[in-house]
Each structure stands twice: as structure tokens, then as C-alpha cells.
Design goal:
The protein is α+β, with helices and mostly antiparallel strands and 448 residues long. The protein has helices spanning 6-17, 59-67, 102-110, 115-130, 139-145, 150-165, 174-185, 201-214, 247-251, 281-284, 330-333, 358-372, 398-401, 429-447; strands at 23-26, 37-39, 46-48, 54-55, 74-76, 81-86, 89-94, 194-197, 218-221, 223-231, 234-242, 257-262, 266-268, 298-307, 316-319, 326-329, 341-347, 381-393, 414-416. The protein folds into three domains: 6-40 and 55-73 and 198-294 and 396-447, FAD/NAD(P)-binding domain (3-Layer(bba) Sandwich); 78-192, no CATH class; 298-393, Polyamine Oxidase, Chain A, domain 2 (Alpha-Beta Complex). The strands form six sheets. The chain has a seven-stranded mixed β-sheet with strand order 7-6-15-16-17-14-18. The chain is globular, with a radius of gyration of 22 Å.
Length: 448
């Protein structure tokens, strides 16, 4: 197993639970891949490499977390509530516990939007429920076909879709938003509830790792996979560089050693662009591996601010008509009220924002606070961090959606896992877990 993000850990745990011997190689000392965190040396709080959300419809991800004993780390809404603020003040999409999708329609009645937007939202819901899947369309094209005007897009769909897909509606594949909408809003009222984490994502991954290791699995950290050995069309093992693991070894300048793990099954749960580099040149140039780098990447920028007094009074707020689209009160999520208030701002599909200097991005977040939250007038920023993930997710437009590979490959014993495989979902934690578990099932079935 290569890669200890959600996909790799999900696959490893699934196989270990079925009593297979599993070794998991992770190139870094921390786990989590593109959904991890670190402890800030100044504040002592966890800082995520981008705030990641789940919804209650993510049944496989939530099952994995709870199986590993991490249920108490989750904060699940009783009913969907999304707070927004704009120049007219606060508003909220607050959905009562009615049968889906009536809960969403009732929630829209309380959201401060024009009646025309509510009717257009109803029309869109009917199109998703009864219409044909929008294969081959961009989300912008699909929204236009469903009669969604500029106000509906600005006030409802664009902020929500960009956050879910990490892509603009003009570029994103409509089928991904269509699939998420059906799972979140058409199954049950509970499925759309937001699920927050009460700690950093790195903490959760350590919980998953402890569960895996307690069942006999082995995680080899700072093990940089260099090549998958393939002979006669079958996997034979993985060659990797074992780098210094402990702080003492790193400080002593211990050199990496060349190692090899013999295996008849390998699941590559690494970023899409990393897979071809692990394969022989001729194989990397063949399908489906040759097309993986074309999946591209879409960036996310996070701005972390610590304030000397509370300014935002909600766990999460959508910031309309602002460069920074969402703000999260991380202190509140971590169980701490009052000062200092730790806020995390997210910019999805941040193609234009990512190259900007840190000072400009910090200023954009501060400007938004002063614009929408009066309490910011007397507040002071005591610490700031700017984090960039250049390839936070794959960039799936309608053409690239066709390139996402299956879990099985033409090589016997080699499987792919990751949110970038053909899950039918965008780059989400649920997609990663589903892919990891599907790869484990395929590997076990092929051994039978």
C-alpha cells in the first residue's frame, strides 16, 4: 500500500480487517495526504491545510471514522444550517426535519433571496430529481438549461458548487454537482447535515492509524516509494527510500537507505500525477496511466487569523460577494470560546488568488471582516498564516471526467485508489474512502 491519506488508510484498514497482511508506505512523517494538519508552534492549535467539510450523506467516510473509534471527534448538525452574510446583514438556509426534499424547500423560504430565486431553485431540484444526468456538460451549461438566472447563481449555486467541486461552474463537470445534490438533498433530510471535525485532520488520521496498527498493520513513515516492481505483467514489490524518521536521526543527518517490500498486491493511493513516476517507462506511457497527469489540479488557499476578541459568532459563515468565500471559527470547533478567536478563511478554485502575496490575502480577509462584522472595528489581528495547496484537488471538467480511471489496472496485482478515480463524486473525503474500499474489494476478489 502506498500513501496514507484517506484512500490509502481506508484500503489498508479494509484489508487488515479481513486478516490480510498489510504494509502502508507513507513518504511524510505526518499522515493525511491532501487532508492533514499541523500544530501551530505559536498558538498551539491545529491548523488544517485547507478546511475540509463532510456531510451526513458521506456514509462510508463516517463509518470508517466511527469504526476506528473517532466518533467523538465529529460534530454533526441535527439539521442542515448554512449561515450567510452580505451587505444587507445575516441570513441562513435553515432546513427543518421534513421529508427530503421538502426540508430544502422549507429552508429556502427562510433564506433572504428574491422569490424568483426560490422558484428557480425548485425548478433545479425537479430537474435533478426527474431529468436526465447532465453527462458532458459544464455546470454553468446545466444551470442555464435548468433556468437558473444570475441571482440564483450568485446567491445559491456558485458559492456552494465552487466549495464542493473546487472548480468554477464554467469549468466544472455538471455530473459531479448533480450526483452530490442527489445524495445530499434527495435521500433524507439528515443526509444534508454538515459534519465538522473537532480537531485537526492530522489528529483524525492518527486515530485511523492507531486502529490499523492495533489490528496488526504496519505503517512505514518517511518511506518514499520510488518504483513498483513489475515482472511478467504482475506486481512483485515496491522499492522505496527509507529516510530518517526520528528528530534525532534527522538532526544527525542520517542518510536514506534503499529498501524493498515484497508484495503480490499493491494499491497506489497517491496523487494522480505521481502514479506514472512509479511505473516502468513503457507502462507509464500506456492506458490508463498516460492520461493521469492530464487531470490537472485546482488550488485552495487558506488564510488563518487569530483575533484578540471574538468577531464572528457562528461556526461557519458564507461570505457573499467576497474574494474569501467562507469563514470557520476553528476555536469554537475545537471546544474553545472567547479570545483569541481562531478563524480560517477559504478560497476555492483559487487560480487568481494563489499567486498573490501573503500580505494581500491577509488584507482581503481582514477587509471582509470589517465589511460584514461590526465587532471587527475594535479587534486586532495577533497572528496570521497563509497556506496554499496548488493541487488540492483534480480539476475535473467534462473532458477530464472521462479520464478518471477505475480501481483495477491492466497489471495483475496493481490497483489505484484516490478521490481522483472514477467514483462519480468530486474530490471529497467520501470519494477517497469509497475508492480505497473499492480497491480493497477488487484486490481481495482477484486473489480468491
Amino acid at each position: 500500500m502506498i500513501g496514507a491519506g484517506f484512500a490509502g488508510l481506508a484500503a489498508a484498514i479494509a484489508l487488515q480487517e479481513r486478516r490480510h497482511q498489510v504494509v502502508l508506505l507513507e513518504r511524510r512523517g505526518v499522515l493525511g495526504g491532501r487532508a492533514t494538519s499541523f500544530r501551530d508552534a505559536v498558538s498551539g492549535e491545529d491548523v488544517d491545510n485547507g478546511t475540509h467539510l463532510m456531510i451526513a450523506a458521506y456514509t462510508e467516510a463516517l463509518d470508517l471514522i466511527r469504526r476506528a473509534g473517532g466518533g467523538e471527534l465529529l460534530l454533526v448538525q441535527d439539521n442542515l444550517r448554512i449561515d450567510y452574510v452580505d451587505d444587507r446583514g445575516p441570513s441562513a438556509l435553515a432546513c427543518p426535519p421534513l421529508v427530503a426534499p421538502l426540508h430544502l424547500l422549507a429552508g429556502l423560504l427562510g433564506l433572504r433571496v428574491p422569490w424568483s430565486v426560490r422558484w428557480q431553485a425548485l425548478r433545479f431540484g425537479l430537474a435533478v430529481r426527474f431529468g436526465e444526468p447532465p453527462e458532458g456538460l459544464s455546470l454553468a451549461e446545466y444551470l442555464a438549461r435548468c433556468g437558473q438566472g444570475p441571482d440564483a447563481r450568485r446567491l445559491l449555486w456558485d458559492p456552494l458548487a465552487t466549495a464542493i467541486l473546487n472548480e468554477t461552474p464554467e469549468r466544472a463537470a455538471a455530473i459531479l454537482f448533480y450526483n452530490v445534490y442527489r445524495e445530499a438533498f434527495l435521500r433524507s433530510h439528515a443526509a444534508s447535515s454538515l459534519v465538522f471535525l473537532r480537531c485537526g485532520w492530522g489528529v483524525l488520521h492518527e486515530r485511523l492509524a492507531a486502529y490499523f496498527e492495533a489490528r496488526g498493520g504496519r505503517i512505514q513513515r518517511r518511506a518514499l516509494a520510488e518504483a513498483i516492481d513489475i515482472e511478467d505483467g504482475r506486481v512483485r514489490g515496491v522499492r522505496y527510500a527509507q529516510r530518517a524518521e526520528t528528530r534525532a536521526e534527522i538532526q544527525a543527518g542520517k542518510r536514506a537507505t534503499a529498501e524493498r517490500e515484497t508484495a503480490d498486491t499493491v494499491i497506489a493511493a497517491v496523487p494522480w500525477s505521481a502514479v506514472p513516476k512509479l511505473l516502468p517507462e513503457a507502462l507509464a506511457a500506456s492506458a490508463p496511466f498516460h492520461a493521469l497527469p492530464e487531470l490537472g489540479g485546482s488550488p485552495i488557499v487558506s488564510v488563518e487569523l487569530w483575533l484578540d476578541k471574538p468577531v464572528v459568532d457562528r461556526t461557519m459563515v458564507g461570505l457573499r460577494d467576497s474574494e474569501v468565500e467562507w469563514v470557520f471559527d476553528k476555536g469554537r470547533l475545537y471546544g474553545r470560546d472567547g479570545a483569541p478567536q481562531h478563524l480560517a478563511f477559504i478560497i476555492s478554485a483559487a487560480y487568481r488568488s494563489a499567486p498573490r502575496p501573503n500580505a494581500e490575502l491577509q488584507a482581503a480577509a481582514e477587509t471582509t471582516l470589517r465589511r460584514y462584522f461590526p465587532a471587527m472595528k475594535d479587534a486586532t489581528v495577533t497572528r496570521a498564516l497563509v497556506l496554499r495547496e496548488p493541487e488540492a484537488t483534480f480539476a475535473s471538467d467534462p473532458e477530464r471526467e472521462k479520464l478518471r480511471p477505475a480501481n483495477r489496472t491492466p497489471v495483475a496485482g496493481l490497483y489505484l485508489a484516490g478521490d481522483w478515480t472514477a467514483t462519480g463524486l468530486p474530490a471529497t473525503i467520501e470519494g477517497a474512502v469509497r475508492s480505497g474500499r473499492a480497491a480493497a474489494r477488487a484486490a481481495e476478489a482477484d486473489r480468491a
